[in-house]
Design a protein that fits this description.
The chain is mainly beta. It has one domain. It has a five-stranded antiparallel β-sheet with strand order 4-5-6-7-8, with no helix packed on it. A three-stranded antiparallel β-sheet has the order 1-2-3, with no helix packed on it.
């Protein structure tokens, strides 16, 4: 079995791949960790957001060609930016996405991915 989490270079954070956000998230010393590198459990839940992000189908080159890379003066965000939240538990190597996630895995449980 291989590790599904890893320490960051500075050694302050345990990282894992988030299927819902398609990026890494991490736990630091504020969470408890059971020490299991293959099927970890962290407590309590981890919440990222809300923050602003471009939707998954956003096309940078198209936006650039159309001159849409300037922040909207009214909102301070790029046109098309969406509010994004990821809220989850990691239990026994499974990522339990909570219903307040704004991605397609809200309410679902998936196995952690090997790093």
């Amino acid at each position: 079995m291989s590790a599904v989490i890893q320490k960051t270079e500075d050694g302050k954070l345990w990282e894992f791949h988030c299927h819902g956000c398609q990026c890494n998230h991490g736990f630091d010393s504020r969470w408890t960790f059971d020490g299991n590198m293959e099927k970890p459990t962290f407590s309590p839940s981890l919440r990222h957001g809300p923050y602003w992000r471009m939707p998954p189908d956003w096309d940078y080159e198209k936006a650039k060609a159309e001159g849409r890379l300037e922040n909207d003066p009214a909102t301070g965000r790029l046109p098309g930016a969406i509010s994004w939240t990821c809220h989850l538990f990691v239990k026994n190597g499974q990522i339990e996405y909570l219903p307040d996630c704004t991605h397609e895995l809200a309410g679902k449980t998936v196995p952690m991915e090997l790093l």
